[in-house]
Amino acid sequence: MHIQRFHVGDRLSDTAVFNGTVYLAGQIPDDTTQDIRGQTRQVLAHIDRLLEEAGSDKSRLLMCQIFLKDIRLIGEMNQEWDAWVVPGHTPPRATVQAALANAEWLVEIVVTAAQK
Question: pTM for the whole thing?
Answer without folding.
Answer: 0.96
